[in-house]
Amino acid sequence: MIGQPAVRVAFLALAIVVMTAAFMAGSFLTPFQQTMVGFAGINILLATSLSFSNGLTGLFSLGHPAFMMAGGYTAAILTFPVARKAMMMPDLPVWIADMQAPFLLATLAGGLVAALLAVVSGFPVLRLRGHYLAVATIGLIVIVRVVINNADGVTRGAIGISGIPRLSTLPWIYGWALVALALMWRLKSASPGRAMMAIRENELAAAAIGVDRARYRLKAFALGAFFAGVGGALWAHLVTNLTPASFGIPLAFMLVAMVVIGGSGSLIGAAVAAILLSVVGEVMRPVERELGAYGLIQITIALILIAVMLLRPKGLFGSGEPFSFLKPKRPRSMQ
To answer: Which of 108, 192, 199, 312 is surrounded by the most beta carbons within 10 Å?
Structure first.
């Protein structure tokens, strides 16, 4: 599935260990601990998808929270109990109001809506580069939040949706993280990944050999958005409460920090950084509460980010992967 036999064996072993632990977690973790481990898994999914879309093509998008909102609200509305929809969401179309979709279908729908949003917004936005693109994708977050706030007959506006079924279990969360990692690894190892990295390294040279820069950028942007939408759906069904304020600039900063610390373009690096920063956040949370110094978690993560950029500007693993047997196989023409 992923390419080289060694990689297949390594990934299969990882998947077995992770999914076994996820299924057994209920017997030795408290509900609170399961929630924290679930957040770490969602962070892995989000960080690896952002590392793929940003790291491989050289984009600097901060729009993941917008795609999470789109996916989270879509999935939450689809799985919301029918008996409460008429009262809480009176403007819903009849066919949605009378339906309570299975969790898998709702999660896929959330990812597809987020990917569609990425395609529609990507045509104008991806013409920009660097900090111009970053500002434009921040604008996308604002636009989606304003739309949700004003569509109160469907989304309940700023009040948010409460009472969402708690359907996100650890097997669901880590299963999706493994699917995302496998798919993005396969693409990175194949010709699409090579084309994206060529665009990142030298746009003119990539164009000279026939690489369609706009098409590959849009594909990477849409795939990253799809998994961000899936992450939003998992997040909504983990906390069972959804408001537009849940997805903003601090979340975008956190995800970019994970990518930069792990190494832009490194999927395993992004996953490791996601786990690291999730642990740091949970360790610092009681300290923050005890001292009354709210914002201490963000300050700590910012200091870690600054230290990494000063001491190791390329991140923990650069744009590669940490283990030699996991490195993508080079095409014969390049050997």
So the answer is: 199
Residue 297 lies in a domain: no
| Sign, CA torsion 67/71/72/73 | positive
pTM: 0.89
pLDDT tens, 233-262? 999 999 999 988 888 888 998 999 999 898
> Average pLDDT for residues 294-308, to the nearest whole number?
86
Q: Is 318 within the bounds of a domain?
A: no
Cβ of 319: how many Cβ atoms within 10 Å? 18
Query: Could you give the CA distance from residue 198 to residue 207 in angstroms, rounded to a whole number?
Result: 9
Host domain of residue 139: 5-25+32-247
What is the arithmetic mean of pLDDT over 44-63? 89
The 8-class DSSP code of residue 325 comes to G
CA 48 to chain centre: 7
Write out the H or E segment, with its range, that includes residue 267.
Answer: helix 267-291
Select from 69, 47, 51 the least CA-distant residue to 59.
51
Pairwise CA distance, residues 224 & 176, whole Å: 13
For residue 87, give the amino acid letter: M
How far is C-alpha 8 from the chain's CA centre?
A: 24
Q: How many domains does the chain have?
A: 1
In this structure, what token pair is assigned to residue 334?
């390049």
In 3D space, the residue among 11, 30, 15, 165 whose CA is nearest the CA of residue 101 turns out to be: 165
Q: Which two tokens stand for residue 246?
A: 């849940």
Average pLDDT over residues 91-107: 90
